[in-house]
Amino acid sequence: MKLLDPTIQSATALVVDANPTSRSILTTMLREFGISHITQTSRATEARKVLENRHFDIVLCEYEFENEPMTGQDLLDDLRLANLLPLSSVVVMISGEAGYAHVAEAAEAALDAYLIKPHTEQALRERLVQARQRKQSLRDILTHVEAEQFLEAAELCQVRFDTHGPNWVHAARIGAELWLRLGKPHAAQKMFSAILQVRALPWARLGLARTQYEAGGAFQARRTLESLLTEQPGYADAYDVMGRVLLDEGESDKAIDCLRRASGLTPGSVARHVKLGLLAFYYGDPKEAADALQKASRLGLHSKVFDLQGLVLLGTLQFDAGETLNLKRSLDSMVVARQQAPQSPRLRRFEAVLSALLHLSRREVGEAVAGVRRLVDEIREPNFEFEAATNLLMLLSRLHVTEVRLEDAEHQVDLLARRFAVSRTTTELLGCAVRGREVFLNILRQAYADVSSAAEEAVSYSIEGKPREAVVALLAHAKKTLNAKLIDMASHTLERHHRAIADAQMLAMEVNELHRQYRSYGTQVHLSRVDDPRTMASAARSR
Fold first, then answer.
1. pLDDT at 539
2. Percent helix, strand and coil across the chain, each rounded to 5?
3. Cis peptide before 118 (omega within 30 of 0)
4. All domains of the chain, ordered by start, with CATH?
5. What is the pTM for the complete model shown?
6. Phi and psi of 255, rounded to 5°?
7. H helices of 182-231, where?
């Protein structure tokens, strides 16, 4: 036995390979390296369950799994998209020569190394030694990331990047992702640009496109992505981002096509089928939405990589199709999921929506209306977010169609609209949620017009040299509507003109409190969720 490194004997490893002989050989090699805590699994689906609930220092994963819809790339993509693959884990994918192109693409996303079969024990040793040394070099950064101290981790990455310290490219990649997460796209852009000067890496070009988009440069991001996809037509992650950009530009058909391509490239990816289903539900064909969401549920309904908003929309489609039994099954699945995070307001509301739909399907009108009323009472709660608003509108519109009325339904739609109509995109999506109910659509349009008018009024005050009046007017509208756009404008106006406003500090306290409570909102369909309470609870347990 020749130890891989001084700490290897305390390390844990997972070997994922359908071939018992190959799996046994890999396990023997790891034991020769000094690793005694080794878990084996022959199926990608089983590996997903294991990796969702346990941390491993080393993961060796085969690319191909015969008779399974999921590949090794699908597995790792799903875990990465759900933030269930810790940065401290060393991940190595193994494939036959025929799968080299796929493995190379996967390496861009989440791998530390890949091996082409047949490989030697020495080749695996070299890959693991290099990766483990790199992780050790980045230990201070990774420790902060795992503790969710993202600002501290980003600052450490910035120092490593600025000084070109050890493994600065890898530190910059982590740092750029953190700066994006922290809402500082320009800092991330500098890192990705510097990496591209060293080497033309596809993931760095994709990162550059993401920073351009987050900084408001949708046109630049689109050009970068088009160039990248011309050269790398099999890069599923790039289609994910392009879908977001196209949707924000109002080209929903093209956005859906991008997600179709991403799903086609990774047919075993639960997360991507859910994304496609979400987008098709709001902007496309209900049948395509149902097909995508049903496929995702078959692949991994009870997995943490399945965004449970997909189950809400699937249940809604089942209601529309008169499939009461299937709707009941969706509700039962949501009840089980909620048991993992019983304090989550998001999952509680999901369950409430499905429950109301089931009552409505059974013509239990009183129970359905009571459930909707309980959701309506939460409209002004700080944690009632854009996603909850679209679900409630979806529910109200179906009450409307079945001729079950809330006496103040139009008032409630108006409250939702004034809070969440922050842009043309959000207003369009709210309109998609009500499925063409003209009375509700008119309310949404008027609310957006009123919000825009309030914003224009504030701009006029600023142009006239009356910044305080602008802030006061925005604050008044923001307190009444809780609209995040107006809160943002009040904050930005104060920052720009604070020297000219005598009571700027007092006004700032009011604005900051509104910002703290109500700033969090979605501007479009959530094309992924990293804050699923089931995922967060699992991450906390694994630490």
1. 43
2. 70, 5, 25
3. yes
4. 8-137 (3.40.50.2300), 139-232 (1.25.40.10), 233-302 (1.25.40.10)
5. 0.88
6. -65, -45
7. 185-198, 202-214, 218-231
